[in-house]
Automatic annotation (TrEMBL):
<dbReference type="InterPro" id="IPR033524">
    <property type="entry name" value="Glu/Leu/Phe/Val_DH_AS"/>
</dbReference>
<dbReference type="InterPro" id="IPR006096">
    <property type="entry name" value="Glu/Leu/Phe/Val/Trp_DH_C"/>
</dbReference>
<keyword id="KW-0560">Oxidoreductase</keyword>
<dbReference type="InterPro" id="IPR033922">
    <property type="entry name" value="NAD_bind_Glu_DH"/>
</dbReference>
<dbReference type="InterPro" id="IPR006097">
    <property type="entry name" value="Glu/Leu/Phe/Val/Trp_DH_dimer"/>
</dbReference>
<keyword id="KW-0520">NAD</keyword>
<comment type="similarity">
    <text>Belongs to the Glu/Leu/Phe/Val dehydrogenases family.</text>
</comment>
<dbReference type="InterPro" id="IPR006095">
    <property type="entry name" value="Glu/Leu/Phe/Val/Trp_DH"/>
</dbReference>
<feature type="binding site">
    <location>
        <position position="82"/>
    </location>
    <ligand>
        <name>substrate</name>
    </ligand>
</feature>
<feature type="active site" description="Proton donor">
    <location>
        <position position="118"/>
    </location>
</feature>
<feature type="domain" description="Glutamate/phenylalanine/leucine/valine/L-tryptophan dehydrogenase C-terminal">
    <location>
        <begin position="195"/>
        <end position="426"/>
    </location>
</feature>
<dbReference type="Pfam" id="PF00208">
    <property type="entry name" value="ELFV_dehydrog"/>
</dbReference>
<keyword id="KW-0547">Nucleotide-binding</keyword>
<feature type="binding site">
    <location>
        <position position="233"/>
    </location>
    <ligand>
        <name>NAD(+)</name>
    </ligand>
</feature>
<dbReference type="InterPro" id="IPR046346">
    <property type="entry name" value="Aminoacid_DH-like_N_sf"/>
</dbReference>
<dbReference type="Pfam" id="PF02812">
    <property type="entry name" value="ELFV_dehydrog_N"/>
</dbReference>
<dbReference type="GO" id="GO:0000166">
    <property type="term" value="F:nucleotide binding"/>
</dbReference>
Length: 429
C-alpha cells in the first residue's frame, strides 16, 4: 500500500481544469520532484508540432461536409512519434495535445524508444456509413502524408477507431509513396502485418498491473471482484481476460448504461450478445440494467474506468467503494478526485502505466515489421508481460523511496528519462 506521509499535488483552482492543464500540472510536479531545469521543462510543456487539417467528405446523400482533423506531435527526443487516432464528438485540439504529451511520458516510462503524438477527428463514428468513414480516414491520412511515416510518426487505433481504420491509413500512405509500408501504422489487421496479441494488448496490460498490485496485498486475481466502465477495445478485452483469470466481473457498461450481476457476469456470453449479435446491452438476460454513475460507485476490489476522461470527479470520488482504481482510459480521474481517492487510501494505478500495454505491443508490432520476422502470440505476450511487470515495480519502488503517490512516481520516471535525453542531446541549433 501507499506510504502514509506522501507529497500530493496542490489542488487546482477551479476544481475542474482542462486536460492540457492537468497533464502540465503533473509535468510540473515531476519537474519539481526531480529539480529539472526550468528551460527543459518549458520545452517539454510545448508540443513540437501541431497540425490541423480540413477533411471535406461527400456523404452518401451527396451532401458535402467538412470536418476538422488534428495531429499533435509532442516530443521526439527518444524516437519517432507514436500515438492513437481518436474518432469521438468530444475531440478538441486541447484534448489531443494533452493525450500527445501523455504518450511521451508513457513511452519513456515503459522504456520504449518513441515520442508522444495523438490524432483525432471530432465526429461520432456511429453517425457515418462504413463508406463515409473510409473516405474520411483516407482524406485525413493524405492530408497528413508529409507529417507521418514509419520513422517519423506512427498512428494507432484509439477510441472510435480499430484495425479497419488502420488498414485504410496504411493503404492510403502506401498508395501515395508507391510501395507497401506496413510500418506506417500499428494495430493493423494480421493480413497486412499486424501483430498477434495487439487487439487484447491494452486490456491485458491492465490485468497485469492489477494482478501485480493485488499480489503485493497478498490477494489473488482469481476471486477478485472487478467493475469495468466501457466495453470497447480496452474494456471488452479486459473484461474477458479478467473473467478467464477467475476474477468476478460484476459490471460493465457502454455509452447507454451498465449491466450488473452480483455473482459476476458471463462475459463470453455478453460479448457474443453485444459484439457478435449486435444486440443492445440492456437486453442481455444475465444481469440487471443500472446507470454508468451507479456502476462507478459499486463495492468491488478493482474499478476500471475504460471509456472516457473525467469520469471520477470530486463529486463521486467520496462514494467510490473500490480498493484499487486502474485507469484503463486516459485521464478518467480528475486532479481533485485523485487527491480524494488517495486520502481515502484507494490505490490509483495511473493511466501512463495501466493502459500502456497497447503501445507496448504496438512497439513489438513495429519491431516485427522492421525486421520482417513475425512472432507467435505467446512470444508477444511474454515480451509485453516482462515490460509491464518491470514498469509496475519501478513505479511502485519509486513511490516508496520518494514517499509520493504512484502517479507522481510514474511521471517522475517518464519525465525524468525524457528530460535527461533532451539535456544530453542539447537544443538545436
Ligand atoms: P472504444 O471506442 O473501443 O470503446 C469505448 C467504450 O466506452 C465503448 O464501450 C463506449 O460505449 C463507452 N463509452 C463511450 N462514452 C461513454 C460514456 N459517456 N459513459 C460510459 N461509457 C462510454 O475505445 P477504446 O479504444 O476502448 O478506448 C477507451 C479508452 O482507453 C480511451 O480513453 C483511450 O484513449 C484509452 N486507451 C485505448 C487504447 C487502445 O489500445 N485502444 C490504448 C490506451 C488507452
Amino acid at each position: 500500500m501507499m506510504p502514509s506521509s506522501v507529497k500530493m499535488p496542490q489542488p487546482p483552482t477551479p476544481a475542474h481544469i482542462c486536460p492540457m492543464d492537468r497533464t502540465c500540472s503533473y509535468l510540473q510536479q515531476a519537474g519539481s520532484e526531480l529539480n529539472i531545469d526550468r528551460g527543459i521543462l518549458t520545452v517539454l510543456e510545448n508540443p513540437r508540432k501541431v497540425v490541423t487539417v480540413s477533411i471535406p467528405v461527400k456523404l452518401d446523400t451527396g451532401e458535402v461536409q467538412v470536418l476538422a482533423g488534428h495531429r499533435v506531435q509532442h516530443c521526439d527526443v527518444l524516437g519517432p512519434y507514436k500515438g492513437g487516432t481518436r474518432y469521438h464528438p468530444s475531440v478538441t485540439l486541447q484534448e489531443v495535445s494533452s493525450l500527445a504529451m501523455l504518450m511521451t511520458w508513457k513511452c519513456a516510462l515503459l522504456g520504449i524508444p518513441y515520442g508522444g503524438a495523438k490524432g483525432g477527428i471530432a465526429l461520432d463514428p456511429h453517425q457515418y456509413s462504413v463508406g463515409e468513414l473510409e473516405r474520411i480516414t483516407r482524406r485525413y491520412t493524405s492530408e497528413l502524408i508529409k507529417d507521418i511515416g514509419p520513422a517519423v510518426d506512427i498512428p494507432a487505433p484509439d477510441m472510435g477507431t480499430s484495425a479497419r481504420e488502420m488498414a485504410w491509413m496504411m493503404d492510403t500512405y502506401s498508395m501515395n509513396v508507391g510501395h507497401a509500408v506496413p510500418g506506417i501504422v500499428t494495430g493493423k489487421p494480421l493480413s497486412v502485418g499486424g501483430s498477434k496479441g495487439r487487439q487484447q494488448a491494452t486490456g491485458r496490460g491492465v490485468m497485469i498491473v492489477v494482478r501485480e498490485a493485488l499480489a503485493q496485498q497478498d490477494k489473488p486475481l482469481a476471486g477478485a471482484s472487478v467493475v469495468i466502465q466501457g466495453f470497447g477495445n480496452v474494456g471488452g478485452a479486459a473484461a474477458l481476460l479478467f473473467h478467464q483469470a477467475g476474477a468476478k466481473v460484476l459490471a460493465v457498461s457502454n455509452v447507454s448504461g451498465a449491466i450488473f450481476a452480483e455473482n459476476g457476469l458471463d462475459i463470453p456470453a455478453l460479448r457474443k450478445h453485444v459484439v457478435e449479435n449486435h444486440a443492445p446491452m440492456n437486453n442481455f438476460p444475465g444481469g440487471e440494467w443500472i446507470t454508468n454513475e451507479e456502476l462507478l460507485t459499486l463495492p468491488c476490489d478493482v474499478l476500471i474506468p475504460a471509456a472516457l476522461e473525467d469520469q471520477i470527479t470530486e463529486e463521486n470520488a467520496p462514494r467510490i467503494q473500490a480498493k484499487i482504481v486502474a485507469e484503463a482510459a486516459n485521464g478518467p480521474v480528475t486532479l481533485v478526485a485523485d487527491q480524494l481517492l488517495h486520502s481515502r487510501g484507494i490505490m490509483v494505478l495511473p493511466d501512463i502505466l495501466a493502459n500502456a500495454g497497447g503501445v507496448v505491443v504496438s512497439y513489438l508490432e513495429w519491431v516485427q515489421g522492421q525486421s520482417y520476422v513475425f512472432w507467435d502470440e505467446e512470444r508477444v505476450n511474454q515480451e509485453m508481460e516482462g515490460l509491464m511487470v518491470r514498469a509496475y515495480h519501478r513505479v511502485y519502488e519509486t513511490s516508496q523511496q520518494r514517499g509520493i503517490p504512484l502517479r507522481l512516481a510514474a511521471y517522475t520516471l517518464g519525465v525524468g528519462r525524457v528530460a535527461q535525453a533532451l539535456s544530453d542531446r542539447g537544443l538545436y541549433p
